[in-house]
Fold:
Amino acid sequence: MQFNFNSTEPIYLQVADQIEEAIFTETFAEGEQIPSTTEISKEFHINPATVLKGMNILVDNQLIEKRRGVGMFVIASAQSRIVAKRRDQFYTDYVKKLVSEARKLHITQAELAQLIERGFSES
Amino acid sequence: MSIQVQAIQHAFHGQTVLDDLNLTIEPNKIYGLLGRNGAGKSTLLNIISSRIFANSGSVTMDDQPMQDNDSTLGKLYLMSEVNLYSERSRIKQLFHTTALFYGDFDFAYAAKLADSFGLDTNARFGKLSTGYRTICKLIIALCVPADYIFLDEPVLGLDANHRELFYQELIETYSDNPRTFVISTHLIEEVANLIEHVFVLDEHRLTLDGDVSDILTQAYTITGPATDVIAYTQGLNVIGEDHLGGITAHYVYGSLNDDRPLPDTVTVEHLDLQKLFVNLTNTKKEAATHVN
Structure:
């Protein structure tokens, strides 16, 4: 987990994003306990109230749940739901930007398709 | 239970230090008290803790005056820059003396902290280096059973490792036992995410008083070619500017004009707390040397 304190995004949103990313990459597996508010606060010198505000976004989105007296846990279906959400957003987040940049560089549709093929074969 | 500071006015030798100052300090919050050198931060903390008396105005805790009032003053502790301890006292004696004054003291936590910071509690206070004097005072401040802890320059003379350790211990003890901390410091970047609420003193007055995240959502940097930036920020609250070649940056505090179209050439970003502070508290002379 890391935070970019120069970023224009509020810290509590960065906390939510970073935990979501860790669930997505299965660093925090489904059903597992995630670090406590205090642990995250201490590690990154962030006010506990700010960390809690970030965590509450994930609770509202039903990605983590609070077990009283124990801590926060990743909900069973969390990872698959993040994948579904990101697939939905893939077109807007990546494809549209890719095409717009390609247009500015006068890369044709055929050339772009070739580059994508190359990307797949090389990775 | 909160502390109310009302209409405080104070002058030293005819020079105004604080002018009609009002603020509220609530329970269980971490505050940052920021200000330039000589802005009146220590004076304010000394007035709240009744170490000096203001020329006028009042400090109350839940409608009870705090001046010379043992029952309210026992609820707060001020760790100040000045060293009030006898040079010959051993550290562990200082712990016991504090316990006598405050009725209690967390000796176990003090021992743990002394061990983490590498402070020998058998040493005499006068033999300590600047950094270790600060550490000793910090340990006392964290172990005292008070609801309001004021830390005036808590990291003075501390190396980077010890500062890191202090911030971690502060969060740990705050999470275990929530109480109010007011931290006065010049190392703004190090506490920017740690504090929930910020007070900025400038020219003897309180220029900022609010939730840090709320304040930062209203602080912007507008960057781009000079003419476009000037056109976009006209009429907005521009608190500072920078120039580099043909590129101009205007720093704005307050809402932007949403009706105004944003030119492609201009980018809008948020400011961090330190940059906002610098621009808000720059004197005209310093601002002018910035423009080159």
User: Anything to note?
Assistant: Residues 79-122 of chain A form one domain. Residues 16 and 56 of chain A are 8 Å apart (CA to CA). The beta strands of chain A are 64-67, 71-74.
